[in-house]
């Protein structure tokens, strides 16, 4: 009986990811805000949120071997690493990269839309789940099966575009008892909602969530790689 010969070319590409950019900056949001962090931005995203500020990552990029990505992180000389996108989990080998970064001893976070299965992610990774509000235009893509998988190590983020989004997010937080599972973050959508207005709503309702603004945008606006 004949067998297929090994395919060296296939083996050589099996551990690669398409990368838009790797850069060192300050973490601008979530639990690790303010820490010097290496960002690994993967290319591609199946969602099209109307407020997206990283549409340049939808296409293009370059193929990187996972070992080379880890070596590049080592070269940057900090302990925090954030894997982002696009939607990083849209590339199947993303889980392998996250595992390798954890094995190398890094403090690793993953920024994901929550539209894809997070069960494939190493439990040492802090999963920052961006639940899509109606104002995003992509709320139908939320994978609610992810919610029971969340632990205290994880975080859930809502980008709030208007009062309707705020009320929707309040219901989701209560119905899924999110504050008992993990940190919950509310952010104002830039140019759509005044940050002070969202802050006033949270204070008035005594809502047990963390208000946040994107520190990197306050410092560098929308400059890529910052």
Automatic annotation (TrEMBL):
<dbReference type="InterPro" id="IPR007197">
    <property type="entry name" value="rSAM"/>
</dbReference>
<dbReference type="Pfam" id="PF04055">
    <property type="entry name" value="Radical_SAM"/>
</dbReference>
<dbReference type="InterPro" id="IPR013785">
    <property type="entry name" value="Aldolase_TIM"/>
</dbReference>
<dbReference type="InterPro" id="IPR027621">
    <property type="entry name" value="rSAM_QueE_gams"/>
</dbReference>
<keyword id="KW-0411">Iron-sulfur</keyword>
<feature type="binding site">
    <location>
        <begin position="51"/>
        <end position="53"/>
    </location>
    <ligand>
        <name>S-adenosyl-L-methionine</name>
    </ligand>
</feature>
<feature type="binding site">
    <location>
        <position position="54"/>
    </location>
    <ligand>
        <name>Mg(2+)</name>
    </ligand>
</feature>
<feature type="binding site">
    <location>
        <position position="45"/>
    </location>
    <ligand>
        <name>[4Fe-4S] cluster</name>
    </ligand>
</feature>
<dbReference type="InterPro" id="IPR024924">
    <property type="entry name" value="7-CO-7-deazaguanine_synth-like"/>
</dbReference>
<feature type="binding site">
    <location>
        <begin position="26"/>
        <end position="28"/>
    </location>
    <ligand>
        <name>substrate</name>
    </ligand>
</feature>
<comment type="function">
    <text>Catalyzes the complex heterocyclic radical-mediated conversion of 6-carboxy-5,6,7,8-tetrahydropterin (CPH4) to 7-carboxy-7-deazaguanine (CDG), a step common to the biosynthetic pathways of all 7-deazapurine-containing compounds.</text>
</comment>
<keyword id="KW-0408">Iron</keyword>
<dbReference type="InterPro" id="IPR058240">
    <property type="entry name" value="rSAM_sf"/>
</dbReference>
<keyword id="KW-0671">Queuosine biosynthesis</keyword>
<feature type="binding site">
    <location>
        <position position="86"/>
    </location>
    <ligand>
        <name>S-adenosyl-L-methionine</name>
    </ligand>
</feature>
<keyword id="KW-0004">4Fe-4S</keyword>
<protein>
    <recommendedName>
        <fullName>7-carboxy-7-deazaguanine synthase</fullName>
        <ecNumber>4.3.99.3</ecNumber>
    </recommendedName>
</protein>
<feature type="domain" description="Radical SAM core">
    <location>
        <begin position="32"/>
        <end position="226"/>
    </location>
</feature>
<comment type="pathway">
    <text>Purine metabolism; 7-cyano-7-deazaguanine biosynthesis.</text>
</comment>
<keyword id="KW-0949">S-adenosyl-L-methionine</keyword>
<feature type="binding site">
    <location>
        <position position="49"/>
    </location>
    <ligand>
        <name>[4Fe-4S] cluster</name>
    </ligand>
</feature>
<keyword id="KW-0456">Lyase</keyword>
<feature type="binding site">
    <location>
        <position position="52"/>
    </location>
    <ligand>
        <name>[4Fe-4S] cluster</name>
    </ligand>
</feature>
<feature type="binding site">
    <location>
        <position position="41"/>
    </location>
    <ligand>
        <name>substrate</name>
    </ligand>
</feature>
<feature type="binding site">
    <location>
        <position position="84"/>
    </location>
    <ligand>
        <name>substrate</name>
    </ligand>
</feature>
<comment type="similarity">
    <text>Belongs to the radical SAM superfamily. 7-carboxy-7-deazaguanine synthase family.</text>
</comment>
<keyword id="KW-0479">Metal-binding</keyword>
<keyword id="KW-0460">Magnesium</keyword>
<comment type="subunit">
    <text>Homodimer.</text>
</comment>
């Amino acid at each position: 009986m004949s067998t297929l010969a090994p395919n060296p070319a296939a083996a050589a590409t099996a551990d690669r990811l398409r990368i838009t950019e790797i850069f060192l900056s300050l973490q601008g949001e979530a639990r690790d805000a303010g820490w010097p962090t290496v960002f690994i931005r993967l290319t591609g995203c199946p969602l099209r949120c109307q407020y997206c500020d990283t549409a340049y990552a939808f296409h293009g990029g370059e193929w990187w071997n996972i070992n080379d990505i880890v070596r590049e992180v080592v070269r940057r000389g900090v302990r925090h690493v954030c894997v982002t996108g696009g939607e990083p989990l849209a590339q199947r080998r993303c889980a392998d990269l996250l595992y390798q970064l954890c094995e190398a001893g890094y403090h690793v976070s993953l920024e994901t839309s929550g539209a894809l299965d997070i069960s494939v992610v190493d439990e040492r990774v802090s999963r920052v789940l961006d639940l899509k509000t109606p104002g995003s235009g992509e709320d139908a893509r939320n994978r609610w099966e992810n919610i029971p998988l969340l632990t205290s190590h994880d975080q859930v983020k809502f980008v709030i575009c208007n009062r309707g989004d705020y009320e929707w997010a309040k219901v989701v937080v209560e119905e899924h008892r999110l504050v008992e599972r993990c940190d919950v973050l509310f952010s104002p959508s830039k140019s759509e909602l005044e940050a002070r207005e969202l802050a006033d709503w949270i204070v008035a309702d005594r809502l047990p969530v963390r208000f946040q603004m994107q520190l990197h945008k306050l410092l560098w606006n929308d400059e890529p790689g910052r």
